[in-house]
Amino acid sequence: MSAAVSLRGLTNRPKQERYLVTPEGIEIPIMLASKGSRLGALILDFLFFFLVIYAVVYFVIFVAGGAAETFASDSIEGASGALEFLAILFILFLFFMRYGYFMAMELGPRSATWGKRIVGIRVAARDGGRLTPEAVIARNLLRDIELFMPLVFIMLAPGGEWGSYGVAGAVWFAIFMFFPFFNKDNLRAGDIIAGTWVVEAPRTKLAETMSTSGAAATSGSSTVTGAKYEFGEAELSVYGEHELQVLERLLREDKDEALGPVHETICRKIGWDPGAGDERAFLEAFYAQLRAKLEGDMRFGKRKANKHA
Amino acid sequence: MKAPVLSSWFGKTAVAAPPDIESAALRSDRFRLEREGDWQRLEDIVKRMEKGGLRRISDEELLALPTLYRTAASSLSVARETSLDAATLSYLEALVQRAWFQVYGPRKGFFAWFKEFILGGWSRAVREIWLDVCIALFVMVAGTIVGWLLVAQNTDWYYRLIPGGFADTRVPGASREALMETLGTEDSADRLSIFAASLFSNNAGVAILAFALGFAFGIPSLLLLVHNMALLGAMMWLFVGADLGVEFAAWLSVHGTTELFAILLAGAAGLHIGRSMAFPGDKSVLEAAAASGRRGAVVMAGVVFMMVIAGLLEAFPRQLVGSVEGRFTIGGAFLVFWLTYFFLYRPARVEDGL
């Protein structure tokens, strides 16, 4: 296997991109999750959290009512025993929800809570290794000072009951809460001590091949007009890889009205007379031949990043 | 340079038949069409692993997974040199990343981890932070003494240290009988289990807070320890003043040896993080924080476990066993057990594989 092309230092890579080097020596780009999507995931998780807690509270009240009714005629002790059991279950349940939900979900094969799954992000180890249970425990134990305590302080401090002590506490805890804004990897305090980060979990579908249909497949002949588009060496050296990929995106998007202006621009650039009505075939043919040329050059180690290169 | 091509074009789920390879005008598209069956088979396996772990895939697929992964990785590496098809490249990057998480990330199941944790992992983590345990112990003892001295000098401090809910009849100037009564037992075990559950939830919450505060260079963890122990010192002063020192110690020791030990470990784990961030040595701050955080997390998992035991001890034996000797025996036995487990029990490290 050849040494991987380094993606680092290439221009036009997004700012939030980081790299992961597999044991095969291949660099895979991973995108950091944006702060917005993490906040969204958190809000979703809390929504589930409260929904589940409300459901359980209603269930407990329902069962408690049932237990009181059943045992009331027999003995008071039976009823209190049943209620006691319910109370214990409830206390333990609340504890588990507070500390266990995030841990249990992130230990699963997708390393993400429901909220994160919906948003399409996951937790990963920062060093590229595996995500261990210790890391998941560590990152979630810190939620206390990052989330629960700041919220308590921020809600109570303005009331003035705790005086300047409360305000100082609120400010202090706010530092932890807004930690992701202070570092380039969007790490929260829990991520720092666990050695993790939150990255996007891409779900890209495999798109169609470009050169098996349309004018790209038939070496440039249009099915509409029957015209055959062939471009010479000089005409194809106008553009580089960047323009090729813009054109690819355009052709895949399937928006015919966008093709017209592009067709015109290219024609002017290569000194052709822009016609009308057969833009798609023209662009497909141009795309296929430009790609064939650029890929051919690539095999000889010649790359042309964009039209200026 | 060609990647090994697995012959199976169609996985279990019928993949839509790809276009004829020969029909592709571009060499890089032919390269892709020759291999995309393998990629899609890999994607299918990975998708199912993400959904339900290893249960959903057959042995045959599990065996094929590493090969398929390498095929895809090698395709990516070749495609980067030969293809300018942005859609295919981004698909491959996403696929290799997803597969990489599954191939190189087969974490231990929870039970395997828990077994390793109980049989050595926990006590090793505790021994690794021995210095912090010593510092935290020193701080706790100092806190107790401070609490004692403060109250001894001025009884007003008692009301400041002890929150209202606790104090009930245990206030300076209370009679010996009233104090004795608070150390007494309950007649039956009714309602004690609720007491146990809420004690556990409350104490474990405090311990987790002590750990989490370690992030601020450990200082708040220590302050929390001092505050909690000053409270204990003030209480001790009160009971010793009423000539109930031994009874109080017995009452406290039942669960205290476990609970205070757990708080000690939580504070030490927090301090460990704070200390390694303040003095990272020759690692970077982030690396040092991550290493100490993971070690601390193991200790904390154990702390929660100890809090369960402490909650049970506090609710049942302490409220039901009345004699001073009985209480000392229970508390002492647990102390000996924890010390033995943490410092004498040293099984060889089980390698966690790759």
N to C succession of SSEs of chain A: EEHHHEHHHHEHHHHH
Strand content of chain B: under 5%
Radius of gyration of chain A: 30 Å
Helix content of chain A: 55-70%
Q: Uncertain spans of chain A, ≥5 residues at pLDDT below 50?
A: 1-5
Q: What letter string, H or E per element, gives the SSE order of chain B? A: HHHHHHHHHHHHHH
Q: Helical segment tally of chain A? A: 12
> Reading side by side through the largest sheet of chain A, how are the strands ordered?
1-2
Which chains make the largest contact? A-B, 82 and 88 residues
Reported for the largest beta sheet of chain B, the result is: none
Mean pLDDT of chain A: 80
The total domain count of chain B is 2
**Number of E-state strands of chain B:** 0
Number of helices of chain B: 14
Number of strands of chain A: 4
Distance between the termini of chain B: 28 Å
> Can you tell me the residue ranges of chain B where pLDDT is under 50 for at least 5 consecutive residues?
1-15
